[in-house]
Specification:
The complex is a heterotrimer of chains A (197), B (161) and C (347). Chain A is mainly α and 197 residues long. Chain A is built from 8 helices and no strands. In chain C, helix 3 packs antiparallel against helix 5 and helix 9 runs antiparallel to helix 11. Chain C is globular, with a radius of gyration of 21 Å. Classes of the chains: A mainly alpha (197), B alpha+beta (161), C mainly alpha (347). Chains in contact: A-B, A-C, B-C.
């Protein structure tokens, strides 16, 4: 792909990602928020693909846009908010608090970035070429797998412990209210009343 | 009262507890059997369909279609306006107005005899109830009409059928 | 031959022809569905419009096009309009990477399987958004069921594909097809259907669930949900839903053929390195035969089995198919490490 077209696609993807993430937080109806979040994930995955990380881009789509957002949507639809049910717009106190938190995170991040030596390292390399040279294996599943399962194996395994903890928590919550721990579903309503395990 | 409801609830719970987990997910054999069965039907390909407007089915004896009123050997209607049929009718679709009969062998005859075919359920109770064998259900089932009023058959129409 | 304009023209031509054919299969499929279900039920089926009723789909389309286009009161207009497209577009898009003949596909992707799997999963948004936007409790329930079902069976399907990818050591669909070609009388045994039977069965059943076909069509479920997510849809919007489902069925069958049934490769006929038109036509023909056989299987199953109950669906999804396909991955991994060639195909 020629640099011009690549830049054009990057521009489109970046604008779409920014605008849709703004829409995610400004829409009052959570269904619209979820929809624009999907659009945002898609735009980010386009950016990944432009960086020659096709596999990562598709994984972004598959996991976030394809699976996690379906789960979000499931929960939103279970609550089924209609325009009349939505809570009142939050007041000035909440808004200023949110703005303060956002400002704090932004300044922390910009401080960290400006004081890390990555900026110096990158600037010492001279001007960044429009299309950096990457090896043929860059972004392939093989390169991805080697990186993940050799270099970052410990982190990967720690993540799986985190997921396991999540599963145990979910199972615990689901089995609450069963007196004898049998697999039979308790009678309707009992699960809500009995909280002893 | 409270004890009773507790007991029934417990019973319900025990019932679900015994039936639910034992239901094994071994669907493979019944699924295969079903597939073979439907495949047999495809291969045999003996449709039971009657191409209706082209082919017509002859109704079985005793088929209950639209009504007619019978005449006796002198050409008079057999009906004596006894109201037995309209009393027996579960759909209340028979309307009779009686008048004095000009003949000696009976007191009354119907001046008006209307059957609302849109209301009739073709049960044959009128035929059962009739003491003079004057009303009868024919095998005819396919007389169309453009309006509801056309499906209210009067005496002349019923006698002509 | 390497002229870029020439290549672009070829690409456009391929896209146009494959899509035109794909869209022509849909009405044909609807016709077959109605005829086959009639035969199963000892009926005749549509046989009045055109020769043996072949023009029936055309009559259906005309009927749908002239129906009144309703938007229910209280519906979310934009999402309501968007939903049918969200079902239709992913199904068509996913078909682009399926090789229908020797290296013949609309889009050449080196990670074809992942692309297809990702894109085809997106159709659930159409069902969920459509169900929500209709402002109808049955539609909403249909959308809810669709999303829960899709997440559950996507996991089982992905895990069954992983076992295939482990033995194939590639995600290039053409390469997977090449590996399934076998010479000699037992050439068919090279198919992944026989090499990885567990994965094949799990994939097949998950494909039924993913495409919302009976016995897993709980999102529609006309008996309890009056049509589920498409209860409120009429006319061409409904037709778009309908088309999307059938295209998804074709796409899933195409993926099934490519992964498990040898794809376009013709057994006993050597894959030529420089294929002539005749070779390509032969491979496309063989692919088409298998496609229709599989579509017949879809229809046959639909008119045989009753619908699963929702808890049964979830139970067999999570408690049977996911553990089984995980065990299959474990078995494949062990066999691969120990080099058991009699169990799995090893390169």
């Amino acid at each position: 792909m020629s640099p011009g077209i690549e830049q054009l696609f990057f521009g489109i993807a970046a604008v779409v990602a920014t605008v849709s993430s703004l829409l995610v937080v400004t829409r009052r109806n959570p269904i619209y928020s979820a929809m624009f979040l999907i659009v945002m994930f898609a735009a980010v995955s386009v950016i990944f693909m432009l960086l020659d990380a096709t596999f990562l881009g598709f994984m972004q789509l598959l996991v976030y846009a394809g699976a996690i957002m379906v789960l979000y949507l499931f929960v939103i639809m279970l609550i089924n908010p209609r325009d009349g049910d939505l809570p009142e717009e939050s007041g000035v106190t909440e808004k200023s608090f949110a703005a303060g938190v956002a400002l704090l995170i932004f300044s922390l991040l910009s401080f960290a970035i400006s004081h890390s030596n990555e900026v110096e390292r990158l600037s010492s390399l001279g001007p960044i070429p429009l299309i950096p040279e990457v090896s043929a294996s860059h972004g392939t599943i093989r390169a991805f797998g080697l990186e993940l399962f050799q270099k970052h194996l410990l982190v990967f395994e720690l993540t799986s412990v985190l997921v396991l903890a999540g599963i145990i928590g979910a199972v615990h919550l689901a089995s609450r209210g069963r007196k004898d721990g049998s697999t039979a579903p308790s009678a309707a309503g009992k699960g809500l009343v009995n909280t002893d395990v | 009262m409270a004890n009773h409801s507790d007991a029934s609830e417990e019973k319900l719970e025990r019932k679900t507890a015994t039936t639910e987990p034992r239901e094994k997910a071994t669907y493979a054999v019944p699924v295969a059997k079903g597939l073979i069965n439907t495949l047999k039907h495809i291969l045999r390909n003996e449709p039971n369909t009657i191409h209706y407007p082209d082919e017509k089915r002859t109704p079985y004896p005793g088929y209950r279609g639209e009504h007619r009123l019978k005449r006796d050997e002198l050409g008079r209607e057999k009906c004596v306006a006894c109201f037995m049929c309209s009393t027996a009718c579960p759909a209340h679709c028979i309307e009779i107005v009686a008048e004095e009969a000009p003949w000696d062998d009976r007191e009354k005859r119907p001046r008006l005899f209307n059957i609302d075919m849109m209301r009739c359920i073709y049960c044959g109770m009128c035929e059962e109830a009739c003491p003079c064998d004057a009303i009868e259900l024919t095998p005819v089932f396919n007389i169309p009409a453009r309006t509801r009023a056309e499906k209210i058959y009067d005496k002349d129409k019923l006698l002509s059928l | 031959m390497t002229d870029p304009i020439y290549e672009i023209l070829i690409a456009i031509l391929k896209a146009v022809i494959i899509f035109a054919v794909l869209l022509q299969i849909v009405p044909l499929l609807v016709y077959f569905e109605r005829r086959i279900c009639a035969w199963i039920q000892d009926r005749i089926g549509p046989n009045r419009v055109g020769p043996v009723g072949l023009l029936q789909p055309l009559a259906d389309v005309i009927k749908l096009a002239f129906k009144e286009d309703l938007t229910p009161q209280g519906a979310d207009k934009w999402i309501y309009r968007l939903a049918p497209v969200l079902v239709y577009a992913p199904a068509v898009l996913a078909f682009t990477v399926i090789p229908v003949g020797i290296d013949l596909q609309v889009a050449t992707f080196d990670i074809g399987v992942i692309f297809l799997f990702t894109i085809s999963g997106f159709s659930v948004y159409g069902l969920a958004f459509g169900g929500w936007a209709s402002n109808n409790k049955y539609s909403l329930l249909g959308g809810l069921r669709a999303s829960a079902q899709m997440i559950s069976y996507e996991v089982a399907m992905g895990l069954s594909i992983i076992a295939i990818l482990m033995t194939a050591e590639t995600v290039d669909l053409n390469e997977i097809v090449r590996q399934q070609w076998g010479a000699g009388t037992l050439g068919l045994l090279e198919w992944n259907l026989f090499q990885q039977p567990i994965a094949a069965v799990v994939f097949m059943i998950a494909a039924f669930a993913e495409t919302n076909r009976l016995p897993f069509d709980l999102a529609e479920c006309e008996a309890e949900l009056i049509g589920g997510f498409h209860t409120e849809y009429t006319g061409l919007k409904f037709a778009t839903f309908f088309m999307g489902e059938y295209v998804a069925m074709i796409t899933m069958s195409g993926l099934m053929i490519t992964l498990f049934l040898g794809g376009w490769s013709v057994p006993w006929v050597e894959i030529p390195t420089d294929p002539s038109i005749f070779d390509v036509a032969l491979s496309v023909g063989f692919f088409t035969v298998k496609l229709f056989a599989l579509l017949f299987f879809y229809i046959w199953t639909r008119w045989t089995l009753p619908r699963f109950r929702y808890d049964q669906l979830m139970r067999i999804g999570w408690k049977v198919f996911i553990p089984v396909s995980l065990a299959n991955i474990g078995l494949t991994a062990i066999a691969g490490v120990l080099g058991w060639k009699w169990l799995i195909p090893l390169p």
